[in-house]
Design goal:
Elements (H helix, E strand, L loop, with lengths): L4 E4 L7 E6 L10 H8 L2 E6 L19 H15 L5 E6 L1 H12 L7 E7 L12 H14 L4 H9 L2 H7 L6 H6 L5 H17 L2 H13 L7 E9 L8 H11 E8 L13 H4 L5 H7 L12
Parallel strand pairs: 2-3, 2-4, 4-5, 5-6, 6-7
Antiparallel strand pairs: 1-3
Length: 300
Amino acid sequence: MTGRLLQLPAPKGQTREFLVVYGHHSSLERWWGLAQALNDYGAVMMPDLPGFGGMDSFYKIGKTATLDNFADYLAAYVQMRYKHRRVTLVGISFGFLVVTRMLQRYPELAGRVDMLISAVGFMHADNFLFTPQRHKAYILASKLGATPPMYHIFRAVGLNSHVLRAAYARTHNAKVKFAQAGDDKAKFDAMMDMEIKLWHCNDVRTHFKTTAEMLTVNNCDRQVDLPVWHAFTPNDNYFDNAVVEQQMQVVFSKYHPARINSAAHAPSVIAGKEESAVLIPKALRTALKPPRKRKKQPKA
């Protein structure tokens, strides 16, 4: 499989190393702003995931886009890139599912992690705010969409640029995304352009299969011996924060909430550094800074 890697060197005086695992329906360009914001605190690595951002999918090598396979892929990447170094893991939404499952399947890797960060992540299928009827409908649609010939038909018809421009912003979940543009037509058009790019660069079969994985996931059955920092918004349009918090407190050794000021689940798909920095609230920024060196006391 071939994909891309975003790599930003650490600024002077910073030694922290971030590995960012982006979320569903994403690419390096979509999260470029957050990478810039994190870069103030250390070096940043953000690789494509199989089937996302233009990278070849698992299906190319005869595998399925399951959460376990993503976890195995990420574990191999961590073992290869961070053999003798510690790393700060940042999982964004679906990316946090992958990070958590990796740590559950490979508990020995916890010793290489100096900090674990959930950026609007979640733990279980019951975290979604959808009605039971909508939840079931999404599961059925995503499972059907992951089968041939449905994903071929969807790519040919549903992902036509003209169809997307005419219909996508009116769909149930996309309405919240595009509300971030307000009355700014230029911003709306830029967001639509990015959304079309994301739909076209992400493998359709992987999109549907990972959607089904998210809607049926259970990452609460194995503990992880690490504290977690969880950046969340009370305005999340996808997840019940109270349930997410309860489950994180059970799975991880310690839970640090970090409330962010965001009107939706995540910044807009065209967010730059300033807008994306909302995912690094004050408490988290403080935790990311290296400890101050104590001044030596003069001898008496």
